[in-house]
Design goal:
Keywords: Fatty acid biosynthesis, Fatty acid metabolism, Lipid biosynthesis, Lipid metabolism, NAD, Oxidoreductase. The chain is α/β, with parallel strands linked by helices. The chain is built from seven helices and seven strands. The protein starts with 6 loop residues before the first strand and ends in an 8-residue tail after the last strand.
């Protein structure tokens, strides 16, 4: 696929294992120009180092803290001024307190619930609000979700509730922005070892279950997810909106 002439914003690269980095590698290979947002300056050095691995020259890195509307507004203003408009945004951001990703969901604190829903679900609405002003014709948003938003899973807890809200945000945003010709979709990835999953105790067991039970009998990697993100961001997906595409070796179809 040729994406030369297209510009995409990627939010959520923390390190080389990030799913957002898988999307960056895929989009770069297809010739797209990339803009990155980082949570804070401490992530800049890591990203600068990673960027040397890409083929294209992607020099615009903007700070964006999605817990602040002002920060999101300023980030997209700056990106708009420096690029003259973008063709899409990948949102790969989530957070929940570690304590709430184990044990029962009934122990979730009010504050922990608020934080998880704010960073993992509300943030997509804020990104939509402030990015639509700089989206080129036919532009689109893609976010990352997980099966734990559709089914109850041990330990996922408040993140499952946040992903259910995120999935609903995708559908409501698709309706809202559809009037302007913009599309909004999600990719539901199978489990992949990343910085955010590294804290999960049972992760090995979860990966093994996929190898045994998923139709493809193997796990997926960041590049496979990235290729699907690239497809959804591209004009090849011009008729797809409000959709959740599972890139999970087919695991979600199994009883
Ligand atoms: C059923 C599972 C396993 C249990 C749940 C894992 C959920 C992980 C998602 C959240 C977003 C991880 C998270 O917020 C970790 C933080 O508490 C601590 N980490 C950090 O602060 C690091 C430094 C930063 C960079 O991370 C973040 N997120 O800001 C689900 C798994 C099988 C699949 C999975 C891992 C799904 C998912 O949503 O990521």
């Amino acid at each position: 696929m040729d994406l030369s002439g297209k510009t995409y914003v990627i939010m959520g690269v923390a390190n080389k294992r990030s799913i957002a980095w898988g999307a960056a590698r895929a989009l770069d290979k297809m010739g797209a120009k990339l803009v990155f947002t980082i949570l804070g300056e401490r992530f800049r050095k890591e990203l600068d180092k990673l960027l040397q691995e890409l083929e294209g020259d992607h020099d615009l890195i903007v700070e964006c803290d999605v817990s602040s509307d002002e920060s999101v507004e300023n980030a997209f203003k700056e990106i708009g001024e420096k690029t003259g408009g973008v063709d899409g945004v990948m949102h790969a951001i989530a957070f929940a307190n570690k304590d709430e990703l184990k044990g029962g969901i009934s122990d979730t604190t009010r504050e922990g619930f608020k934080v998880a829903l704010d960073i993992s679900a509300y943030s997509l609405l804020s990104v939509a609000k402030h990015s639509k002003a700089i989206l080129n014709e036919g532009g689109s948003l893609v976010t990352m979700t997980y099966l734990g938003g559709e089914r109850a899973m041990p330990n996922y807890n408040v993140m499952g509730v946040a992903k259910a809200a995120l999935d609903a945000n995708v559908r409501y945003l698709a309706y809202d922005l559809g009037e302007s010709g913009f599309r909004v979709n999600a990719v539901s990835a199978g489990p992949i070892r990343t910085l955010s999953s590294s804290a999960v105790g049972e992760f090995k067991t979860i990966l093994k279950e996929i190898e045994q039970r998923a139709p493809l009998r193997r796990n997926v990697d960041q590049l496979e997810v990235g290729n699907t993100v690239a497809f959804l961001l591209s004009d090849l997906a011009s008729g797809i909106t409000g959709e959740v595409v599972h890139v999970d070796s087919g695991y979600h179809i199994m009883a």
